[in-house]
Amino acid sequence: MEESSAADNALLFLLFFFLVFFRELDLKLGFLQEVGFEFRQLVCAGAHHAITAFESLGLNGGKALQGLFAAGESAAGLHGANRLGGNSLSDLLVFGKRAGEHAAKYAAGAPPTRVPDDQVETAARAALEPFERAANVKSAEGPYQVQHALQEMMQELVGIVRREEEMRRALDGIATLKERARRVSVVGNREYNPGWHTALDLENLLTVSEAITRAALERKESRGGHFRDDFPDKDSEFAGVNITVTRGADGGMIVSRIPVPPMRDDLKQIIEENK
Fold it and tell me: Range with the lowest mean pLDDT among 13-22, 218-227, 229-238?
């Protein structure tokens, strides 16, 4: 009983500590928001994070795409080129609260929307295609093989240490895997079918992998968690830009450098005081 009580007390202390910490962080961020401070991502993360091509959504979670609110690392985060352990939890709690509040306000004042029936039918047919391939194409491949091949390739060619020649090979490999993904098949029912879910995820996994690779190619320097063996030093040219990836008219990816607005002197002073 004494051991259990001690463990309970320790857990309560940790919970209290985190609650106080996040409360203080939320108050500080609220002040920064009032004076107009906005955080922006400076460099893409590694292949294990799907945050590369997302423009910062602002402190309230909604900015770049009307009606879309995001929180946590999917919204680029406030840590710039660094990704220190444990930061993602504070991102999720602080900005999840803000995004939720402002999403509710947006929904309350937004006009009603309706998705066209033909778009729903097209999406439904595309989602069921893997089942149809299993019945009609005996040589169709399963989704797990494509997923595993993508994981292995990104780890090897777009991993911790990056080189242009390897990332160019990764882009060729992604194009090949896209063709394989279009031919995958699944069996079984629609209920609780992880193979089907993986088949549906492949397009997103391949899209994010390509965006990460193209953004990493564009940033010809090393900064934070992004390390280029062929460009091992920081380059001041990239210090003031975000690397963004957008979809072009032909469906391909367009990589751009977006200048980061200069920080005001009073905000620089706040950063210096809190170092």
Answer: 13-22
Q: Of 57, 82, 113, which marks where a domain is finished?
A: 113
Which residues, at least 6 apart from 225, have a Cβ–Cβ distance to it below 8 Å? 43, 45, 46, 81, 82, 83
Q: Which of 61, 78, 113 is the last residue of a domain?
A: 113
Contact, 180 vs 146, CB < 8 A? Answer: yes
Round to whole Å and give the CA distance between 138 and 258.
48
Burial class (CB in 10 A: 0-12, 13-18, 19+), 13: exposed
* Enclosing domain of residue 70: 1-113
How far are the Cα atoms of 73, 101, 193, 204, 245 from residue 242, in angstroms, in the given order? 16, 27, 39, 22, 10
For 110-141, how does the pLDDT look when each residue is reduced to its tens digit (9 = 90+)? Answer: 888 888 999 999 999 999 999 988 877 666 78
113: left (phi over 0), alpha (psi -120 to 50) or beta: beta
| Per-residue pLDDT reduced to its tens digit, 42-66 | 333 333 343 333 334 444 444 556 7
